[in-house]
Batch of 4 targets.
Target 1
Amino acid sequence: MEAFLSSTLGVAITEIGDKTQLLALFLAARFAQKNAIVAGIFVATLLNHLVSASLGVWLAQFVSPEMVKWIVGGSFIAVGLWLLLPDKDDNPDSKWLKYGAFGATVVLFFLAEIGDKTQIATVLLAAKYQALFMVVAGSVLGLMLANVPVVYLGEMLMKKIPAKAVRIAACVLFCVLGLVTLAGRGIALG
């Protein structure tokens, strides 16, 4: 349950103000089919985070528990500090928009998640907890919790949520996770 809750909270907070959240806002402004956008976000995130978490679990099998502890703990701190940098507002490539609300969302969201903070967080959480299903379920839920309101409520929410304060809170959360991981005696791999 800890893997699920940590993944949900970590990804939800990390996603606020992220480029994929801005992408969700763009898609919601472009397409009237909000349910299709939400479904596209879910499918893209599920596929991307399933691959990411599988990679994290697989990598942890080849590294000693002590080494996983240092890699994951240090990486959590690095991701936390990375969160202090605001994302650039990359304009989605309009060639994907011809596929409609669902198709464009799946493709653009999947591509935007590659190398994204939430994808890296999912790899790290899976390596730490070795609980593929719980990490994927939590990370997908966290991403959906952060993006579904943006699709439906859009600009109103973006004006009321101070992105800088959220980035600082997410930084603190990931740095604390990193320090807690480093203070531990290792991660059980069995």
Target 2
Amino acid sequence: MTVRITAQGFDALTELWQHSPAIVQNELSSAMNEAVAYAQHQIVSRTPTGAGEGGHLAASINSEVMINPSVQIGYVGTSKLYAEAVELGTKPHMPPIEPLVNWVEAVLNLEGLEAEKVATLIALKIKSRGTEGQFMFKEGLEASEPYIQERFNQAMKTLLNTLGGGND
């Protein structure tokens, strides 16, 4: 999913960039870093608690901002392969038992045979019904969009005022 921002006064940015590229880059970088951190928080707060190799899915969600002279890209994502299944849900299938045992032990505080029995019951339910999508990325980004739009509008106003092009 992609969030596209349309900054107000964008036409003026081209001229500002030519006269003061470092100031423009710094302000836009600040806005991008804040926007990405906000989106990450919104996504993580919507991610279900779980367990697994290397930790919970929520703990694996990270962000990064890539900047070069012509473009800035903010990224929020995870390297966990099962994130897509959590995000979108799954059709009925028989999942592997071991990750479910880990989840039962960590989240339900069960151990040994009891954890295996509960994990097996969960696996059988997934086999018959699949899983519902949690849509934490979709909903987190949707919730972030107004903040991100406002933050970039604020950056644009700051640049226009700082560099003498503002009318406020």
Target 3
Amino acid sequence: MSTEPASAIEDMVFLKLVRVVNLTARPFRQRVGREHQLTLNEWRTMALLGSRPGLTATQLADLTGLDKMAVSRALAGLQRARRLHRHEDPTDQRRSRLYLSSAGKAVHAAVVVRARQREAELFAGVSAEELQQLNGTLDKLIASVASNAGPPASG
């Protein structure tokens, strides 16, 4: 039995980060996900491909923090819905470069507007300076976690 007070556990930054993700993911699934038949991981993948076409699955895994299997499932779902095109990488035939199809671009355009509105709602009570500081802190945290995660997967 732990002698640590519950409030100490609830104050852990990691648990707060997980809670923020969960509290923001739930409304996504209920609104946007149902409307567009889109999972959260499919959206994460689309969001990156919308701004950085031609990424590989490995790059998507690195940039989203998702494991390779979750990225693979997201890509398969996007491909089934005809929202994704794969093209052979001319420098490495074992890899595919990923691009949104015209249908994927249309969904991306619709969802990104809602995502930006949601982000504005979430940060309405946070000053620009606080948001800039949070952004910098998160970048440092991501770099720290990524450097301690071991070597990236190939592909």
Target 4
Amino acid sequence: MKFQPDRFEANAITAYGPGWVAIDGEKTSTSTVLSSRGQRFEWNCSRFEDLTAEHFAQLAELGAEVVVFGSGARLRFAPPAWLAPLTRQQVGVESMDTQAACRTYNILAGEGRHVVAALLLEE
């Protein structure tokens, strides 16, 4: 028996594939930051090697309870020093490949959690 309707009130990742995601049906091939509270903006990087500490400091400004970092086609971890602004604010950071990050973001956002997905979409 189901007691709640199927509703997704946050930004939703509706599809994904190698090098692209669709957010609420709109396909993009550029790295993107997406928040369950409505923020969405381009993340200025197209390769893991382009990332810097500033990219993660930008995420700390969003005040999420957890950041899901999609590191591209394969799992890679940001250096701990880059995560320091998030750690200081007690924001959890989970690293996974981008497709797994899409699925995880949708689950957490669907539960009403304040989650941010930082999705690296490599060319």
